[in-house]
Sequence to fold (225 residues):
Amino acid sequence: MRIDKEKNRIKQELKRLFKSMDFICDNYLTTKEDVPEKDIEAFADIYQQLGVAWEFLGLQCRHWDGYRRTRDKKEACKICGKIRGTDEMHILLPKNGHKKVGRKQRPSSKKTFRNKKEATILDDTINFHGARLNVDVHNSYKSKLFGSKHEINIAAERTVKLTERGIECYLDEHLIYIKMGKIDKKGKKEYGGFPWELRKKDLKNFPVIFDFDENHRFLGLTILK
Ligand SMILES: [Zn+2]
Fold:
């Protein structure tokens, strides 16, 4: 029922829009009568703006009635006229409720590509209510990291990076890494180690709580800030 209502609304709005576009076209853009040059420009502009409205209305269309063949052997939606399989320039999201952008992608090839650009499947970022989220999915590629002369192979990977209040949380297939904001590192060395490698006195500097079950299986951790 809700879908029928939505479909009818879109159909109606598109009908009105197409009527307006035809009106402008027939009366001002293709007319043989004298229309001042200035007016033609203004109406051509209006026509363009209606084209933008068409694009946005088309984003709401779910192409419920299927497609019809066009003269150039493409398939166009019977409702909005959008050509099947063309890339959309915008994404339409509902203001309330669950928002979904894209689908989950993973590396897609066993091949090693010449560079990151060729290996990239997706590298996209969204700033969502102040939090920054980046998803980077790429196949394996060759790289000259750290200015070295030798090429190394960068593994195929799907990485997700969330940044909030300067803290970066980075996830890929093999590790989860959290970087605690901007720490003044000038001239200071960085170290890393497992907890059992550190002295108890040094461990006390780290505000980390480990979660575990009765078998001391690792369940998670909390970092206090
Ligand atoms: Zn459609």
The mean pLDDT is 91. The CA atoms of residues 42 and 219 lie 65 Å apart. The first strand starts at residue 67 and ends at 69. The helical segments are 2-29, 37-60, 116-119, 200-203.
